Amino acid sequence: MGFVFRSRAKEEKAPLADKATVTGSHQTRHPEAPKGRPTPKRSVAQSQRRSVAHTSMTRKEAAKRQREERRAALERQRQALASGDERYLPARDKGPVRRFARDFVDSRFNIAEYFLPMAVIILVLSMIQVPQLQNVALLLWLVVIVMIVLDSIVTGFRLKKRLAERFPDDNRRGAVAYALMRSLQMRRLRLPKPQVKRGERP
Predict the structure, then answer these.
(1) Residue 176 and residue 26: Cα distance in Å, rounded?
(2) How far apart are CA 95 and CA 113, in angstroms?
(3) pTM score > 0.90 for this model?
(4) What string of DSSP letters covers the chain?
(5) What is the mean pLDDT of each successive set of 10 residues along the chain, which is 202 residues long?
(6) What does each C-alpha distance from 53 to 47, 49, 56, 63, 84 come to in angstroms?
(7) Any residues with CB less than 8 A from the CB of 189 and at least 6 apart, and which?
(8) CA–CA separation, 1 and 4 (whole Å)
(9) What is the pLDDT of residue 84?
(10) For residue 166, what are the contacts with CB-CB under 8 A and spacing of at least 6?
(11) How far is CA 110 from CA 88, 105, 120, 181, in A?
(12) Which residues contact 15 (CB under 8 A, 6 or more apart)?
């Protein structure tokens, strides 16, 4: 009899244990909870979602702010190129040496600044099917090139001397080449805009 009672007790406990196992295995796990860790409370999960959304908005705002700052910097640089404001000029145009080189070129009459219009005239003459005009165009081309080279040599020599007298202790590297490149541009197209008049001593 005792054996019968014990068997029945085991049979009654076994279904209960199986039910408990099935119930535990089907318990829903929070999607944000990592495996092997307890499911976070709803308030904690909501706080985490708000934190992620806030971070995303902050990044968008930072990107927008950077675009606005770049736009403002470009606008300041554009105004500085027109006014000569040293604070916002590009790095290649900053400094007293570069400013003096610009003023030296802008105060002179440079043959090189008329290179483009003269080149157009010579090109038109060379396209006309008249031998005499083509010969004149070739001669003009040679004269223009020689004059520009001589003028550039004189300008570079004088500027180098003035820079050595005016800025003996400053870095003058590249200033002469910078000025000669500027002399090739038409005066009204130069940037930064000329701040001195022709004939005005810088």
Answers:
(1) 83
(2) 24
(3) no
(4) -HHHHHHHHHHHHHHHHHHHHHHHHT----TTSPTTSPPPPHHHHHHHHHHHHHHHHHHHHHHHHHHHHHHHHHHHHHHHHHH--GGGS-GGG-SHHHHHHHHHHHTS--GGGGHHHHHHHHHHHHHSS-HHHHHHHHHHHHHHHHHHHHHHHHHHHHHHHHHHHH-TTS--TTHHHHHHHHHTS-GGG-SSPP-S-TT---
(5) 45 45 45 51 60 62 86 85 85 94 95 91 90 91 95 96 95 96 93 92 84
(6) 10, 6, 5, 16, 45
(7) none
(8) 5
(9) 79
(10) 100
(11) 28, 8, 18, 11
(12) none
Q: Which two tokens stand for residue 62?
A: 């930072």
Distance CA 162, CA 157 (A): 9
Residue type, 7: S
Assigned token pair, 120: 């157009």
